[in-house]
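Hi Y.,

Following your request, here is the sequence exactly as I used it, all 505 residues.
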Amino acid sequence: MPDVISTDPRSGQGLAIGVPETAAAEVDRLCGAALAAAPDLEALGRVGRAALLRSLADALDDERADVVAVADRETALGAPRLDGELTRTCFQLRLFADVLDEGSYLEAAIDHAVDTPMGPRPDLRRMLLPIGPVAVFGASNFPLAFSVPGGDTASALAAGCPVVVKAHGSHPATSQLCFDVLSEAVRAAGAPDSSLAIVHGLQAGADLVAHPAVRAVGFTGSVNGARALLDIIEDRADPIPFFGELSSLNPVVVTPLAARERAEEIGSGLVGSFTLGAGQFCTKPGLVFVPAGADGDAVVRRMAETVRDTPVQVLLNEGIAASYGRITRELIGRADVDVVAHGGEPTGTGFEAVPTLLATSAADLTSGLTEECFGPVSVVVRYDGEADLFRALALMPSSLTATVLRGEGEDALPLEVSRRLRGRAGRLVYDSYPTGVAVSWAQHHGGPWPSTNSQHTSVGATAVRRFLRPVTWQGAPEAVLPEELADDYRGIPRRVDGVLRAAGA
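Below is the corresponding structure, written out as C-alpha cells. Let me know if you'd prefer a different format.
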C-alpha cells in the first residue's frame, strides 16, 4: 500500500517519514479484534479502566519530549502550545478515571417491586453499558487532544468501548508514535491488546465506518467530511450513532458600554483570540459585532494595530492553506466588505497565511459572511443601535459558542443577546474569549447543526455518555445483576425507588 507521507508545514516539503495506508483486510482484522476485546475491557470494571486511563496519562507524560518534538515537526504549532495540549490530554485521561471512580455516569436506578395505582410493578433495575467498539477520527488542528490521544479516545475507553482510531493524514508520524506509546501502556495495565488500534488512509477510514463491528463514530472535522461519513453510515445494514464536531462561526458581541470602558483591551484580546493557533481553533471568533461611533472605532483601531503587528502564520496543511487563500480572496473581493488590516508579509515558503481583519455593516450582513473560514481572519460587523444588532443576530448560524463582552455591571443588553443566541450556541461566554475550552464536569462543547449533529458534548466528563446505552433488568435474580445494581451495593450514587442517594447511603 502507498504511504501516508508526513509534511513539514513550515517548508511545505515532505519529511523522510511516513506510514503505510491500512489495507481493507487489516481494517477488518482490527475491527474484529476490537469486537472480541469488548467483553474483557468491560470486565475490567470501573476500577480496572480507571487504572488503565491513569496508565495512559503516565505513559504520555513519560514520552512528552519525543511526542512534542514530532508533533511540532508535522504541525508547526510550536512546542509550548503542544506541550500545553499534551498536559490537557493527560489531565483529561485522569479526569475520566475520576469519573469512573465516582460512578454517577452509570445513571443507576432501582425500582423495587410494589403495588401502584396502575397495578403491580415488577422489580426494575437500570444502568448504562458500553455501546461497543468506537471509531475515532483524529482532527488536524489538535494532534494531541482530538486525535489518537484525546477526549474521544479517553471517554470511549472509560465507557468500556475498544477504540479504533483513524489517524489524520496531516500528522501520521505523531499519530503512530502516540499509538505506540499508548499500546504499550494498555498492555502494562492488563487491558486487552485490542482495546486500542489505529488505521491510516482515507479508504481505511471509510472501511472502518462501514464495518459491522463498529457501533459508534466520534469525528472532529469539516461538515463535508461529516456528510461523507454519514452517507456511509446510511448505507450500513444497521445505522449507528455519529457524534460530529464540525463547523462554527462563534459570534462575539461587544456592547456599547464595553467599547466605551475598555476599547484597547478588547481590541487586543479579540485579535489574540482569532489568531491563536493560526486561527485553527473550532472556537475561533469569526464574526465580531462592534457598535458604530467613536467607541467602536477605538475597538476596531486597536484590532487593526494588533493585526498589523502579527506576523504571517503557518497553517497545518496544504488543503487548509488553499481554502484560507480562496475564501479570504473572495471576501476581500466583495463590494460590501472593507479590508481593515493585514498582518506580516509572507515569505513564500510553506503553508503560510496572512492575518486579516475585514469589516462590514450589520445592514449589509448576508449568509455569505456567516460561514466558517479556518485560519487567522475575522470580520467586524458594525451595528447602529440594538434593533440593527438584533436583525443581524437573527442571521447567525448555530455555533459552538456565542460571546458577550459587557460593560461593568451591565445586564439588560447582555441578557437580551443571550436570549437571542441561546438557541444557536452550546456555550455562552461572558467577558472573556471563546477559544479556551476547559475540561470539567460542567463543560459543554457542542451546539445545533452545523456546529455538531449531537445533543452531547465532546469535551468534559459527560462526553462518556455518547458511548453508553441503557439496559434494564426486570425481575432479575441478584446473581445476574451488575454489582452496581445489587441492593447492598453503596459505592456510587443511585436513584432507589425514586429517591437519589449519595454513595455510601
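The mean pLDDT is 96.

Thanks again,
Q.
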